Structure formats: structure tokens, C-alpha cells
Predict the structure.
Amino acid sequence: MKKLMALLLAIVGFSVFAWMYQLQFGLGVTGMNKPVFWGIYIVTFVFFIGISAGGIAVAALSHLAGIEKFKPVSRVAEVVAIISLVLAMIAIVFDLGRPDRLLNLFFYPQFNSPLIWDVFVINIYLVLCVAMLYFGIKGKTKLLKAFAVISIPAFVLVHSITAWIFGLMKSQAGWHTAILAPLFIVSALVSGLACVLVTILFSRRFLGIHFGDDVIISLGKYFKGLLPVLFYFLFCEFLTAGFAKIPVHAVVLRELFTGRFAGIFWFDIGLGIIIPFFIIISRFGKTIVGVGIVSLLSFLGVFAERIDIILPSFFHPALMNLRIPYSYRPTGVEYLLVIGLLALSAVLFIVATKVIPVFEGGEKR
């Protein structure tokens, strides 16, 4: 454990150095450019928001449905949600050339912008997640259930508003679609469930915390319903864009199917949805290893989906520019900062296990 912690802290240290370097020389050290002014930082932000929303949904399921065997993982899900929200906020700071001006969002808010809606609702959601964790630790069951009820519409609102940042931009290729919000919600449930399961398996392997196999396998069964729904929403979106043949949408679709993002797209569809679904409905999917593979593939698949939704649109910003070859390639600084966030998530979780009773019902081996 000490070696793992040292490695994680070293990665975080290198990422801090990379951020200092970015602050000194500006966003020019990244691969972002005009018109590709949102890159992997925003992809990571949206991804972590989804994990937080999905994580708290898993916790709310345990509290509201009264499923006793899920109670040991409910607190893990709450901690995962809180850490994910914190990491999402850090990802936004990475994307700012002048982080010192962040407070201007609160001093001079423009409430006609979904960006401001997202800022406020994420902070409110963070307070809600912390409250659920606190009341769970204190054993205040009535208050916990009340906040669990509130968390359901809050979860829907958080990810809907995040989706509307993109979906309400009618001039941006491939984004202006009504289905984007429900698509984000379903993918948030998939990534949140996957992250909770990966965290539980990580805890079993590295932290010596025992969770019953039946709990993990029972949670994994929810992939049977979530993955087909996610595939259905994606199919509806692609069918509509492809059948209508609106040039600005069709060119983004070609970018995904056969263009520069084809590898990421087909990874998402094949290894992120289809293969995990067939694994989880098989006998292998009723084993710990099978659930672990499904969780990891689904986790990576949703990250690939976030890339597919956000980045290709910037390569074709307007009809008049369809033939201009725009490009974006993340630099080492961007990769190091994103890897640093992942390492920081593990560090924060390990620290959380030491200072608060995270594993309700979990047993040290």
C-alpha cells in the first residue's frame, strides 16, 4: 500500500508541475486552438460529472429501496460521487487560462447561459452529496432518506444541465439535439455504476476490505438494463442524423463512423457497450472477474463516448468551412494533468478510508 500511495503521489506531483508550467506559459502549451477551443479537459469534466451523478444514484437506490445487501456499498458510492465532483471542478480550472478570474462567475453571473446554471447546480449537488454522507455516518435515517429522495431529481437536473451546455448550441455541428440530455443521464448511470464497482474491487485488492461476492454480482446485473438503453439512445441519435442528411450533422457522423474518431467511436460501441452486454448476460458475467471486466470496459466506453460527443463537432464548426482540415491533438501537459486527476482520485479515496467510516458493513481482512 505504501508503494502504491508513493506512486500515486508522484504522479500527482508531476501533474502539479505540469499545471504550473501551463499557468506560466498559457494554454498555448495544450493542443487546443481555434476553433477547437474545448479539449480533453472538458471531456474529463463531463465524464466526472457523470460518475458523480451515477454514483449518488447507486447510493439512493440502497437507501430508498431498502435493499439490505447494498447498504455496504452505499457509502462508497457517496464518497465516489463527492470525489468525482471535486475532480470535475479541478478539470474546469485546468481549462481556464486565468483561473484567478473564476470568481467572476459568481460576481457577474449571466443567467441566460447554461454554463452558469451548471456552476450553481453542481455546487448545490456537492452539498447534497456531503449531506447524504454525513447523515449516513451519524445514523440519521429519516434525514438520509429525505436527502436520497431529493438526490433523484437533483441527479437528473445536474446531468441535464451539463448536456444542455452542448445541446442548446444550435449553431454547433452535431450538438443541437433534444436527446442529448437523456443520453447523458443514461451514460452517467452506466459510468457511475461502473466506477462504484471498480472502486469496490480496488478496495478488495489493495485495501483489504471484504465485500460479499453476491453484492458485487447483484450490482453488476443492472448493466443488463442500462447498456441496451444506452445503445438505443445512441442508435436513435445516429439514425436521425444520418437519415436526415443535414450536411453539418452528416459530416460529424462520417467523422465518427469512418473518419479521425472512428477508432474511439467503434471502441465505445463494441468494447464499451456490445461486448460488456454479452458478457454480463453470460455465465461469465455472474463471476467477480466478469463483472470487473464489464465495469472497466463500460467505464472506458463512456469516456470514449464523451470524446465522441464533444471533440468531432469542433472539427466542423460551420458549413462554409467543411473542407478546411481542423485538428486537435492533446499534448503531454494535457495527458499528464488528466492522469494526475485519476491518480488524485485514488489518493483521495484512500485518505477517505482512513478518516471516515467509508465501508459501512465492509470487513477488514
About this structure: The beta strands are 209-210, 363-364. The first strand starts at residue 209 and ends at 210. The two ends are 14 Å apart (CA to CA).
